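Sharing a chain and its predicted structure for anyone who wants a worked example. Both blocks are below, sequence first, tokens second.
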Amino acid sequence: MRLSVLIALFVPVLAQCQSSPSGYRVVRGLDYVGAGNPRQTLDLYLPETKTTLPRPLVVFIHGGGWETGSKEDNGFLLELIKDRDFAGASLNYRLTDQAIWPAQIHDCKAAIRALRAHAAENQIDPDKIAVFGISAGGHLVSMLGVSGGVKELEGDLGPNLTQSSRVTCVLDFCGPSNFLTFAGKGTIIDVDDPKTGLSKLIGGTVRAKSDVARNASPVTYITSDDAPFLIIHGDKDNIVRYAQATEFKAALEKAKIPAALITGTDGGHVFFSQPLVERMRAFLDRHLLGKDVQVPDGAVPSK
């Protein structure tokens, strides 16, 4: 099936005039549900180089406290896959002004199912799908990594319900992992404030909606068959406490899930440095390309 047919199946609903990154052919505004909602669309980045083998795919999920942000906030993804023979995707999902939890994970899973359903015509390997997210996106990719087969989180969106939403590996950049332990010294977020992004996500404060907070926490769903994780977190993050990262890593390791924690020295909430990019690329090489490279715990500069 050619790309033109894929476009018809995905039903693009956005007309965007954006330049394409060098070396990539970009298909924008692909509707992965079929409902005509711009918040349920993705952009696909396909390498222009020819290949006889299917390529791994890196899917990016943006941050913004579940109430702002867009698939266009994808500069880190493009840096990560630059000069690599990886396909990329960046997706929108419904924000809290349209729907509360679990709509966001239902959207993300529908997107993974759609990408897997149309992998062959785009020379994508359906068994080599990594997910990378920042902040709220880190929370959502973590949920993808631990909730394969969890029926209540799967949803029933889109035409690809027979496809799996499991992912190969997860890069979680400063995402929250346990909303019940989110509060504490080090964060400026007040979990008792009904106007925060977290409260809007779960439909009330953590105190009032503790059951929803638990059900929206990645740590709740960890099992021994989950995907490997690379957790990235700044040790001076004042939005999502660094303790969220260490707690999550310990819970993954208790279940025998491969997990590494990369700490940004003096890093706040989201940071960038070339050594960090190289660690992330090594993680992808290990889990998407099968290279014998190690990605141990360690610190990287945050600038």
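Comments welcome. The chain has one domain: 3-301.
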